[in-house]
Design goal:
4 copies of one chain form a homotetramer. Chain A is mainly α. Chain A is built from 9 helices and no strands.
Amino acid sequence: MISAEAKARLKTYLDGRESGPGRIVDWILIGLIVYSIITLTIDTIPGIPPEATRFLRISEIVVTLIFTLEYGLRVYVAPQRLRYIFSFWGLIDLIAIAPFYITLGLGLAGIDMRGVRAFRLLRILRLLKLARYSRTLARFHRAFQLAREELAIYLLLTLILLFVAATGIYYFENPAQPEAFASIPHSLWWAMVTLTTVGYGDVYPITAGGRIFTFFVLMVGLGIVAVPTGLISSALSQVRREESDARLAQLVAEENAEGKGDG
Amino acid sequence: MISAEAKARLKTYLDGRESGPGRIVDWILIGLIVYSIITLTIDTIPGIPPEATRFLRISEIVVTLIFTLEYGLRVYVAPQRLRYIFSFWGLIDLIAIAPFYITLGLGLAGIDMRGVRAFRLLRILRLLKLARYSRTLARFHRAFQLAREELAIYLLLTLILLFVAATGIYYFENPAQPEAFASIPHSLWWAMVTLTTVGYGDVYPITAGGRIFTFFVLMVGLGIVAVPTGLISSALSQVRREESDARLAQLVAEENAEGKGDG
Amino acid sequence: MISAEAKARLKTYLDGRESGPGRIVDWILIGLIVYSIITLTIDTIPGIPPEATRFLRISEIVVTLIFTLEYGLRVYVAPQRLRYIFSFWGLIDLIAIAPFYITLGLGLAGIDMRGVRAFRLLRILRLLKLARYSRTLARFHRAFQLAREELAIYLLLTLILLFVAATGIYYFENPAQPEAFASIPHSLWWAMVTLTTVGYGDVYPITAGGRIFTFFVLMVGLGIVAVPTGLISSALSQVRREESDARLAQLVAEENAEGKGDG
Amino acid sequence: MISAEAKARLKTYLDGRESGPGRIVDWILIGLIVYSIITLTIDTIPGIPPEATRFLRISEIVVTLIFTLEYGLRVYVAPQRLRYIFSFWGLIDLIAIAPFYITLGLGLAGIDMRGVRAFRLLRILRLLKLARYSRTLARFHRAFQLAREELAIYLLLTLILLFVAATGIYYFENPAQPEAFASIPHSLWWAMVTLTTVGYGDVYPITAGGRIFTFFVLMVGLGIVAVPTGLISSALSQVRREESDARLAQLVAEENAEGKGDG
């Protein structure tokens, strides 16, 4: 339909990497995402007047149609369409509009699914695009890659610790509180709430044994909870050091090259 | 009215950077801030005897008049008056006295605004001046600047995470607890209280699905909460290293200069 | 009974270090551990139908027999049998099966001990084997070794802090809340829940003195709680740095060796 | 009375730095401290049988007499007696026994002061002596010294933040919850419990404005709470680096000295 040149220009606009029209398109889309999030959030509040609800629904239809148009254009201008559709950003773009059409279809079929509607809020993930081209995200990525294996082992240790804590507290507290610590899965809830130091206060040990056990679990557990902080911190330090070392090495190389040139 | 020399001396006193009278003025003002904070705090306690209230009011008037005089003098001695008025410290100095005159005006107009009166407590921000000339604050500033972009992206990630957590828990818990998880905004309150590990215990999931979802949210969320600690720690390390590298480079440069001088 | 060669091959299979059959045996055992954990967890839920209970019991018997066979084979193929039995992994393997036989024995003797049954869940510790050969675990181990003495002193400081906090709060709160702060041991529970920032909300100070005391305890206490994070982080950084220094030193040594060879 | 030599030997025993009798004296005293802590803790439990109470009282008298003897000997053998009495360890040693004699005196005067008795538990501070000669404590000390000014500024920032948070929440929540947020001091309790993420759940905002304000307070506040961790971590890293640099510098110096010797 349209020339290859127009297509390329359209792609540039949608990518939002260039100044001028592309930047404007970018900010309009960000504004729409934020607007859409706010309306969807308000929409879940019970007891809002029907006129407000009607306005929210209409504005939601308009916004989703714009996002659908954007998605269609992105697929259209992509050099490899399937690759875009199944890429991270392609899937996020689809998640942003799919719940609307699913609830529409279910609604026409007479099924009311509020839950699916809530998923429209996941279009907030599109805001991640704001950070797409930043050096920071690359540094994060590199730090996570460095600490990946360690984080996996930390996750394994955490799971083991949660089970050991749940087993122990079940043994101590089940006779005294058969409701709160009814089973190991119930005790797992306690273990998680305690070891993350959230401590809602809906379940807590009341026996002396359970409290002493909690002491030991927390002494060991907080150390394990502290490890990922240390890991990410340590990895980020290393990434920064590597960056400055690379800069230094480049400077030295340039100087040497000059020195040889002089010689 | 007064000579330029007297004006310059007055400025020196108010800045509090020099020993002698300036230092004394400085400590008197700090003492007045602390005294003023204490009286304003006591003033909000309900049921204090009327004589105490009267004394507190009078002492507040005296303290505010002194602060007003100080503010006037600072504006008077400033080389560029508007620049001082709209500077960070100028605004803080204004915040310290403005609520008094606003409540006075409102009181004369027959309006009682306790809220505005509480804002007088914001004069505690003036205590930040204690740290104004310290090397530490400069190091903090530099570390925050180094980690600025990263902290911004962390804030974006946190906001996205809060929304995703709120959407998910709303889906799981709303049918079981229509009061506590009445809407996405209500669920956002839960998400914030949980991910910061404050865990008041006013809202918490009770369904199995909601609890398993909470597990995943916390596993990912605590990692994100841990990142800023790592960022600031890593940035502070770098600032310290830069400082010691700069000292080292200076020493080497001095030695080389001596070496050449010898040659 | 069997040849030394067959024994060696069996050992290789059980160790799971080689690709092929050994790897398959490894994954089957991991699958059985996970399956066993899930069934044991479900088994503690009250009110599950009797058929489900029967199925769970039978599958538990089968799994434990397989683990017993595995344990027997491991003891059989071990070069030094006693050494394996009293090694860390040998004890874990025993813990995984012992509770089954103990409850069986107690059951035959007419004693019902649900608590001992729960201990079967400790076979989750066998999952630690997943991380046995990873470089990460070695790094963890080295970091903990570096920070060992510091962690011990932190533990001592924490214990002292807990006692000081409990003593103080008992003094302030016992007269006002004789139930919640009935004794120093009761106050220790409060001290632990507060200083780890879990904050269940079952006990908290209500007097002005107790609250001001809590402020000071938290100001000092959070610093102490923060120290182990710093310790482990700092130790992990050092381990990483040592590793990269060692690599660098090796590279330099190789280059020098080449240089000499050329000369 | 006794010879200077015997006095010196006695001092060596009490200091516990040498192997042999001194080490034994040291461990006996540590054991007595631990025993004394346990008995004093048990003593506060209400409803223990009178015989147990009598036994605890007698053993407390014996232990305190031993500690008094030890204190007397320490004062006796100290080269400068007043200096020891007012030293850190001298004061701790006095705190360990003084409450006993104070309660005795008050008891004879017919006054029952349970509070003072609880202070005997502070003799747990004597356990700090365990860490007296460790290199770790020196490293801690150096790290705290490095981060001292920064920690002071962090404390100032925390205090300012607490006041700003309390002022703000008082403004938002006082009309809705006049009991829980009765005054700024009451709100300060909320601010502290929230910013340290303890979150007992005794006070929490219920208005939309108060909750949104809490969000901003936590976003800024957790960053400030995270700073000391970063500071101590960063300082400990630097201390470790300085130590290894010093070792390296020594090695290089030794090598150079050898090199010159060869030349």
